[in-house]
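Data card: per-record layout.
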Amino acid sequence: MAVVREEETTFKRDMLKTVPSLRAFAVSLCGHQDLADDLVQDTIMKAWAKQESFTEGTNIKAWLFTILRNEFYSQMRKSGREIQDSDNVFTERMSTHPSQHGVMDLKDFREALNRLPDDQREAIILVGASGFSYEEAAEICHCAIGTIKSRIARARTKLQEMLDIKGESDYGPDANTAAVVSGVFASRPV
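The structure for this 190-residue chain is written out next.
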């Protein structure tokens, strides 16, 4: 059986005597009894954990009130940075797809783009990436507009084949990743 020091018993007794006064002070700060009770409990827990820093013979009530007040202001500062989101509406809007898929997709695209014939790669980069019109790209390449359009069409078809793109759903994250990010799995029974 553990031996309880007399100082610890005195500290505990003196601390418990102040609980009604602590609670009244906490209610005056919080305005709600349930929040005040939580604040008093946090104060008692902190005081008990730091009892070695209390100097015996000094005013324990003032020491506890200081802890309570500091804890209250710490919680207020913290709550000012937190957002109440119990139904996860805000969190779901902030979720993003993992970046590794985009990095891998870009790497695959670059490799496929480099495997295109030079004339097709040049045409698709001029129009698709650099933003030139067909007319401007044709002028740069010293060829007809129809030739540029044909090169771009062939380049797009070849890229889709090399990247195994069958439709719009092949762009972006895969179905499982999209479901996780959008919270579909959260609503499904397991």
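Known properties of this structure: The chain has two domains: 6-76, 99-166. The two ends are 47 Å apart (CA to CA).

See the next section for split statistics.
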